[in-house]
Amino acid sequence: MSFKKGTAKMFKSIKALKTKKERDKEGLFVCEGLRFVEEITDDFKIKMYVASESFAQENNLDIYEKRAEVYVFTDKEFGEMSDTETPQGIMAICHKKNYSLEEIVKKADGGFYVAAEELNDPGNLGTIIRTADACGADAVILSKGSVDVYNGKVLRSTMGSVFHVPIITDVDIKETVMMLKSNGVKVYAAHLKGTKTPYKFNLKTKTAYLIGNEAKGLKEETASLADEYIKIPMPGRAESLNASVAAAVLMYETVRQREEEK
To answer: Cβ of 18: how many Cβ atoms within 10 Å?
Structure first.
């Protein structure tokens, strides 16, 4: 069986995509792992597939070649390009997809958004994206200073949801909140100063949640832009919740209320 051999130039450029600077420069990101690669939807353009020799020998590459060219590297080379401890032998180099929040807001019927300010933990961001996908959110919005959505740890923790829900990055949070409000979206800030729980609000209308940094929470300036502060009840002794858990509680209460109308 013959394969298209990857070149030294390809090896260097793919390995460089581990850095945000290079991903931003090239407009590319790496999707790694068999299940993850299979999740790539048709509206994401794939530049190429990359496989290890072991993977190529044990699997039919025809299914990948129907969509983009496949290049094979030695197992050692693939391991150096990989961002995981136990590489599965297959990755896709994908073009980033840019979304217009204004267009999404205008098209959205019910309207349901999660906006995070300076979220730094890859696992938290990935979990929020995955939960937003499960809940049918229209978009996940990330302020400047947030962890890069195309970071390998973030991508893996989304479990493929990065391909299903629009993600708008590097926004000015103030401008974004004002735009949402001008389009009839009710903006809620998850905040310890809140006096009402999510169960007291009508979340069947256009809704957006502001989620703050894991350690500092929302900046006061940002929180003050919200229409309402919203408080998650905690009858136990914990003082706060993980950012992704807090976001999940709010998203699923939105789902619960909207499911009642069906």
So the answer is: 14
